[in-house]
Design goal:
The chain is an alpha/beta fold. The chain has three domains: about 375 residues, no CATH class; about 80 residues, Transcription Regulator spoIIAA, CATH 3.30.750.24; about 210 residues, Beta-carbonic Anhydrase, Chain A. It has 31 helices and 13 strands. Pfam families: Pro_CA, Sulfate_transp.
C-alpha cells in the first residue's frame, strides 16, 4: 500500500545520498519537489497504479541522464536573473504565509504544501483567516513564537551567529524540551500527535522493508509510461535548473554549479528513487536555502542530510516524532524573511521596469498558483520583454564622423535572428539618401538567413537606388558577403587634396571630443595597415610631449596614416623636431601643424623647479643633453611668480606649472613659423595652419589654443 509520507522520505534520502554524491553543487539539496505534486497525482491516475508510476519515474531518470550527457544543462544560462530572483522572493513569501498557521498549531494541511489551492479546498489566505478566527494551539504557538525569537537573537548576536552550533538545531532541541514540559502540564498546553512530526515506525528491519514499493516492470511496453517519464524528466529538469541557479545566487562564496552534471545526478537519483518506491526528486530551493542559511560550505552537508534522514527513518522514528511542527515551521518562516527581504525588492525596483516587472510577476504567479506554473509564467513574461526589447532597439546605431564624412555605423548583436528583421528594416528605411552606412558583424556569431537576404538586397539594390553607400565589415565567409569599406576610414590622397587647414583642425577637434566622451570610432586597423602599406597621405603633423599619457593617435581618435607624430620632452622646438615638421609640411603636404602640450607635464615642472632653484640641469639630473629642452621652456616661466614657488600650496603649484605648459605651447607655435621660412610662407598664403592645444591628463579633453589668446612674449630664441 502506497504511503505518500514514506515515499517522500525515501525521495529525501535518495536526494541526499545519491544525488548529493554525484552533484557538483556545494549547496543545493535535492528531495521530493512540491512543484511536481500535481504531476505525480495526475500521472498516477493516468497510469492506474503507483507501481506503474514508479516505472515512469525510472524512465524519466534515464531521460535526464541523456540530457546531462548532451549538455542540455547549458540552457540554464538563458534563464533571466529577474525570474531567478522572483523565484527566491516567492519562495520566501510562501514560506512566511504557509508557515504562520503551523507556527501557532494550525496543522490541517501537510508541512511542505506550497500551492495556493490546498488539498482541503482552502487557499493560502483563507487558511490564514482561520488562524485569526481562533484556530490555534497554545502549546504549539508557544513553541513556534519562542523558536522565532531564538532564531532572531541567534542571527543578531555575533558570538552565537559565529558558533559551530547552528541555531536551527537549538530550536529543535528547545521544541522537544517544551513539548515534554507541556505534556506534563497537560490541558490546553499539551501538544498532540497531530501537531508533531509523524514518521512511520517499523517494529523491525523486516517490517521496514515492507514500506518499500517496487515498480511494475510488466508495464515496460506501455507507451503511456514513456510519455509520463518524458513529462517528469522535462518538468523535473526545468525545476532543478532554476532552483540550482537560485541556490547559487544565495551561496556566500558565489560558486557556479555545473548544470549538466546536475541533470545526470538527478537522473541517477530518480532511477534509484523509482526503483525503491520514492517520489521524483529535484533540486529543492527550500532545502537549499535552509542549507545555505545554516552555514553549509560543501556538498558534505547534503550527503549528511541524507544520512540523518536514513537514520531517523530506520533507527530513530520515535524520537523524531517528539519534534513539534511549530519548531520546524519557525525555522522555515525565518528563512522566508531572509529570502524575501525588503532589500531585494528595493534592488529590483532600482534596476528599472524591465527587471522589476518580470520579478514581481514571477513572484505573484508562484504565490497565487504553484511553483511550476509560476516559473513558466515568469519565463513567458521575460520572453515578452526580451522580444519587445529586440523589436525596439536590437541593434546599436552610432553616427561616426570619419575623415571622409559622417558614417552611420550599424553594429549587429552576437545573435541576429528573424526577430531583428523589423528593426533592421526600419533602420534601412530611415537612412538619408546619399548617406554612408557601415554594417558591422565583427562581434556576431550567428545571422539568420532572412537577415542576410535583407542586408544583401539593401547593399546591392535598395541602397544604391537611394544613393546610400553601404560598407560591410566582419562578415564570415559562409555568409557570402564580401567585406569592404567604401568610405575614408583613414586619410587618403583625395581627402588630403580636398580639405582645408580649418577642416583638418575640425577633424582633430572632433576626434578628441569622441575620445573624452567615450565614443571612439570602430576602426579596422588591419585594413588600414594594408591600405597604407604602399603610401601615406597624412592630414597633419602633431608635435607632442613624450609623456606616456598623451599618445597623439589615441587622444585624437585617429587611425593609421592620419598624422605624422613628432614627440619630444616638453613639446619644444629644436633643430631636429623643426626639421621633421618641415618635412611633413613641405614634402608630405600636410595642411595642419598641431603643437600638443598637456597638464602635469614633467618636463615643464622640472624646468620650473630648476629655474626657481637656480640649478644647473646637468649637475642635478646627470643628463648632459637636457639643457636644450630647459632652454626652450625657461622663457615661459614668470620670474616673479617663481620667487613664491615654495610658498604655494600643492594646488597653486599645479596651476602654476600648467600655466607655464600653456605658455610653452604658445611659444612653440610661434617659434615654428618664426624659425622656418617654408612654413611661414605657407601659413601666410593660407595653405597651412599652425595651432596649439593643451591636453588635460585628468579628463582626456583638449583645449585648442589660438594666437589671439597668447600672453607670451615669444622671443626669437634659437638653438
Amino acid at each position: 500500500m502506497w504511503s505518500p509520507l514514506f515515499s517522500g522520505l525515501l525521495a529525501g534520502i535518495v536526494g541526499g545520498l545519491v544525488v548529493g554524491s554525484i552533484s557538483g553543487s556545494s549547496t543545493s539539496v535535492s528531495g521530493p519537489a512540491a512543484g511536481l505534486t500535481a504531476i505525480v497525482v495526475a500521472q498516477i491516475a493516468t497510469l492506474g497504479s503507483f507501481e506503474a508510476f514508479l516505472l515512469a519515474v525510472m524512465v524519466g531518470g534515464v531521460i535526464q541522464i541523456i540530457l546531462g550527457v548532451v549538455r542540455a544543462g547549458s540552457l540554464s544560462a538563458f534563464f533571466p536573473s529577474s525570474v531567478i530572483k522572483g523565484l527566491l522572493a516567492a519562495i520566501g513569501v510562501i514560506l512566511i504565509l504557509k508557515q504562520i498557521p503551523h507556527v501557532v498549531g494550525h496543522d490541517t494541511d501537510p508541512e511542505g504544501e506550497m500551492s495556493f489551492t490546498q488539498p482541503d479546498k482552502q487557499n493560502t489566505f483563507s487558511e490564514l483567516l482561520t488562524v485569526f478566527e481562533g484556530d490555534f494551539h497554545y502549546g504549539a504557538a508557544a513553541v513556534g513564537l519562542t523558536s522565532i525569537l531564538l532564531l532572531v537573537v541567534w542571527g543578531r548576536v555575533k558570538m552565537l551567529k559565529n558558533s559551530v552550533i547552528p541555531g536551527p538545531l537549538i530550536v529543535v532541541l528547545l521544541g522537544v524540551s517544551m513539548h515534554l514540559l507541556f505534556q506534563r502540564l497537560g490541558g490546553p498546553w499539551a501538544i498532540e500527535a497531530s501537531h508533531m512530526v509523524q514518521i512511520p515506525v517499523a517494529e523491525s528491519a523486516k517490517d521496514l522493508l515492507t514500506f518499500l514499493t517496487l515498480p511494475d516492470f510488466s508495464q515496460f511496453l506501455n507507451p503511456a509510461i514513456y510519455l509520463a517519464g518524458a513529462t517528469i524528466a522535462i518538468v523535473a529538469s526545468l525545476e532543478t535548473l532554476l532552483n540550482l541557479e537560485a541556490v547559487d545566487k544565495l551561496d556566500p562564496e558565489n560558486r557556479n554549479s555545473p548544470p549538466s552534471r546536475e541533470l545526470v545526478a538527478q537522473g541517477v537519483g530518480n532511477m534509484v528513487s523509482g526503483l525503491i518506491g520514492g517520489l521524483p526528486v529535484t533540486s529543492v530551493i527550500v532545502r537549499g536555502s535552509v542549507n545555505v542559511n545554516s552555514g553549509a560550505k560543501t556538498k558534505i552537508s547534503c550527503i549528511f542530510h541524507g544520512v540523518l534522514l536514513l537514520i531517523a527513518v530506520a533507527l530513530l522514528p520515535m524520537y523524531m516524532n517528539l519534534i513539534p511542527l511549530a519548531a520546524l515551521a519557525a525555522i522555515l518562516l525565518v528563512t522566508g524573511f531572509k529570502l524575501a527581504s525588503p532589500t531585494l525588492f528595493k534592488q529590483m525596483w532600482s534596476e528599472g521596469r524591465y527587471q522589476f516587472l518580470p520579478f514581481i510577476i514571477t513572484l505573484l504567479s508562484i504565490v497565487f498558483t504553484d511553483l511550476l506554473i509560476g516559473i513558466l509564467i515568469g519565463l513567458g513574461v521575460s520572453l515578452l520583454f526580451i522580444l519587445n526589447s529586440s523589436l525596439r532597439q536590437p541593434i546599436r546605431r552610432i553616427l561616426e564622423t570619419h575623415a571622409g564624412g559622417d558614417v552611420l555605423h550599424i553594429e549587429l548583436a552576437n545573435q541576429v535572428s528573424f526577430l531583428n528583421r523589423a528593426a533592421l528594416d526600419q533602420i534601412f528605411n530611415e537612412a538619408e539618401p546619399g548617406s554612408k552606412m557601415l554594417i558591422d558583424a565583427s562581434n556576431t556569431d550567428y545571422i539568420d538567413p532572412d537577415i542576410l537576404s535583407l542586408i544583401q538586397e539593401f547593399k546591392t539594390k535598395i541602397g544604391p537606388a537611394r544613393g546610400i553607400s553601404v560598407s560591410l565589415r566582419g562578415f564570415k565567409r559562409k555568409y557570402q558577403l564580401q567585406n569592404e569599406i567604401q568610405f575614408a576610414d583613414y586619410s587618403t590622397r583625395d581627402l588630403k587634396d580636398q580639405i582645408t587647414p580649418a577642416q583638418a583642425l575640425k577633424i582633430l577637434q572632433d576626434g578628441n571630443e569622441r575620445f573624452h566622451t567615450g565614443n571612439r570610432l570602430s576602426r579596422d586597423l588591419g585594413h588600414q595597415v594594408n591600405a597604407t602599406a604602399g603610401e601615406q597621405h597624412p592630414l597633419a603633423v602633431v608635435l607632442s610631449c613624450i609623456d606616456s599619457r598623451v599618445p597623439a593617435e589615441l587622444v585624437l581618435d585617429l587611425g593609421i596614416g592620419d598624422i605624422l607624430s613628432v614627440r619630444v620632452a616638453g613639446n619644444v622646438i629644436g633643430n631636429k623636431s623643426l626639421g621633421s615638421i618641415e618635412y611633413g609640411v613641405s614634402v608630405e603636404g600636410v595642411k595642419l601643424v598641431l603643437v600638443l602640450g598637456h597638464t602635469r607635464c614633467g618636463a615643464v615642472a622640472s624646468t620650473v623647479q630648476l629655474m626657481c632653484d637656480h640649478s644647473d640641469p646637468t649637475q642635478v639630473t646627470g643628463c648632459a643633453h637636457l639643457d636644450s629642452i630647459v632652454h626652450e621652456v625657461i622663457p615661459c616661466v614668470d620670474e616673479e611668480a617663481c620667487e613664491r614657488l615654495d610658498e604655494m600650496s600643492p594646488e597653486e603649484r599645479e596651476q602654476f606649472v600648467d600655466e607655464v605648459a600653456r605658455r610653452n605651447v604658445y611659444r612653440s607655435v610661434h617659434e615654428i613659423s618664426a624659425r622656418s621660412q617654408v612654413i611661414r610662407d605657407l601659413v601666410q598664403t593660407g595653405k597651412v595652419m599652425v595651432v596649439g592645444a593643451l591636453y588635460d591628463v585628468k579628463s582626456g579633453k583638449m583645449e585648442f589654443l589660438t594666437e589671439e589668446h597668447s600672453n607670451v612674449e615669444a622671443g626669437s630664441v634659437t638653438d
